[in-house]
Amino acid sequence: MGNSESSSRLPAGADGRLGVVRRDNSEEENDATLSTSIEKAVKVGAKVAGTALVAWGAWNLAASSRSTERPEDDRPGSALGAANTLLEGACQAAGRISRGGRGLIPNEDYFFYQPEINDQKNASGTIKFMTYNVWKQEVTDRFGRVWPERIEAIGRLVEEHDPDVIFLQEVTPNIYQNFQRFNWWKYYECWDSSEEATGGDFLIVLSKLPIESKSYISTIGREIPICKLDAGSGRRLLVANGHLKCHNSPAEINREIRKTQAKAVMDTLDNSSNAVFGGDMNWTEKKDGPFPLREGWVDAWTCLKGSDDGWTYDTKSNEHLKDRRTLQERLDRFVCKLSDFSLIDIELIGTEAYPPSDHYGLLLTIC
Q1: pLDDT by residue (tens digit) across 257-272?
Q2: H-type helices in the chain, by residue range?
Q3: Range of 264's domain?
Q4: How many domains are there within the chain?
Q5: Do both 148 and 165 map to the same domain?
Q6: For residue range 197-237, what is the model confidence (pLDDT) as tens digits?
Q7: Where is region (Disordered) located (predicted)?
């Protein structure tokens, strides 16, 4: 099921792609609308680059728009798609082009077509990743908040930080449906492990970057969603969202399971020049030893923050964990192999006095 659908059932793991609304008009309607769009494009472009140059570009694009060839991105039979193409061409002729993931929108102050604010952030070339274990407990917390209020708080963190790629763990069907109510949801393409989940909760990858391919890494009771992303400029990113085996008894067996799961993911991602593995690793150096990084891989936190604690699970600071045995660990991580990117920053999020989860989240920025 695509993200644009508002269904109460669990999303189909086989297809989380964003839906596209197609409007089929008659040929006469298309021609009439297209003619109007051509005229508008010429007038808009003439204000910026001169009537002659833009008129030529408009005529050329108008001719090509009637061709039998249809680009993959275009909507068949849609005058709107042709009009957007034409307007983009007019702006190009003027030497000023603005692209947006959701098309071109008017800016009356400058008689120009510019992307919505939400799309302008990628102009810097940075890519932001967010990982969060959202806590599957659908109960009233110790602060008297019902669980949807916690999910709302996490949703506000997404609004605040506006990440390009999001890894969520411990998502339940109800939590999934609550996230779908946020306005930001429609801007992401979704890939999840819901169909493969066996424990009632699952993993989600949300991406504003185009997803070229989707698959799973199956390893000892875990289905880890993996995606190849188009990061622009011919660059590709292979990403995986993990939730490795917890520390429950039997501890020794679970420790070996974690190591096997981590190795399986690293074996898959290591084939890529650019890869990011994030999530709730449940990893502690004291019990598990060094994380099994391969040559060319780094732990983003230790690389950027050095010896700073970075505890994402902290029974002393997180009010949800006050009654539990003392444990301060960096269970949640990003590990990266980046040939065409650089690490810029990493920070803890969700650390407010009344945190929305028993884990803190991480926000990683690369460029």
Answers
A1: 999 999 999 999 999 9
A2: 27-49, 51-65, 79-93, 117-120, 147-161, 173-180, 251-269, 285-288, 300-305
A3: 125-366
A4: 2
A5: yes
A6: 666 899 999 999 999 999 999 999 899 999 999 999 999 99
A7: 1-32
